[in-house]
Amino acid sequence: MKKYIGILSLCLLALASCKKNDPITELGSTNNQFASQLRVTYNNTRPAFGDTLIVTASTWQRDDKFQKVVFYETLVENVGIQLALNSGTSIVTKTNDESTLILVDSIAKKQVALEVKAADLDKYWVTSSNNYVINHPYKVERKTGKYPNDATLITGMSDNEFNILKGLLAYAITRNDYLALFPSAPTTHFTTGGTYVLTATGMKNLRDNCTRAMLVAIVNTIKKVGNYSITIDVNAVTPTNTITATTRTFDITI
């Protein structure tokens, strides 16, 4: 009889080891429910545009109670302007050392990239590791926001941003570019030497009277320089809305 009892005990132990519960018992609880455990890894820590970033979420919960696992994306551009006019004027508003004009564009606020409901989680169960493993192939793409990468960027600036740009141009503009904007400008608008081409009067005239359309007409090249940020958030949510979350931001230089 003892032999049969021993065999039965071993069978029960084997069945228990196959349950979808992590053996860790000290998980902490919120909203009267144990929080999920969540680990997120990435196949690439320095992705470039065109890459496919594999986001792997491994999760488990003491009582195997889930509502969903959600992957989110947030896209933000933080850029300056590299601008050249037709007759030699050149400015860069963001470098490694300083920033004089920064355009912040929330291209995509936090939005769902992938959602796996509890009813579908069994598709991702991995017996060998005793948890759910979700691999999400995230395509790294440069999406266009409110600031195009051409001369129409100037048209899309706010009044405050455009005023800052004109202030920078007032100190950097060449005589020929200024005359392209104001062909009948008097000599009192120009210095006769020194660091700057324009006098205080000329600078004020540029700041007060140069319009977006006037400036766009004499742009030779313009491009955005700075960072394109991709933030990936992953949430494991229980039925009582207890959330375990991770976040990671990737910055791509543009």
Q: What would you say this structure looks like, in words?
A:
This protein has 254 residues and is of the alpha+beta class. Helices cover 22% and strands 38% of the residues. The protein is built from 6 helices and 11 strands. It has helices at residues 2-17, 152-155, 159-172, 175-181, 200-209, 212-216; strands at 29-30, 33-34, 37-42, 52-60, 68-85, 90-92, 103-117, 125-126, 131-139, 219-237, 243-253. The strands form 3 sheets. Strands 5, 6, 7, 10 and 11 form a 5-stranded antiparallel beta sheet that branches. It has a 4-stranded antiparallel beta sheet with strand order 3-4-9-8, with no helix packed on it. It has a two-stranded antiparallel ribbon with strand order 1-2. A hairpin with a 4-residue loop joins strand 8 and strand 9. Helix 3 runs antiparallel to helix 5 (200-209). The longest helix is centred in the first third of the chain and has 16 residues, at 2-17. The protein is rod-shaped. The relative contact order is 0.22.
Q: Average pLDDT across residues?
A: 89
Distance between the termini: 75 Å
Order of helices and strands: HEEEEEEEEEHHHHHEE
Task: Indicate the multimeric state.
Answer: single chain
Q: Per DSSP, what share of the residues sits in E-state strands of 2 or more residues? A: 35-45%
Regions with little confidence, pLDDT below 50 for 5+ residues = 1-29
Helix content: 10-25%
Number of strands: 11
- Based on Cα principal axes, name the global outline: rod-shaped
Report the C-alpha radius of gyration, rounded: 30 Å
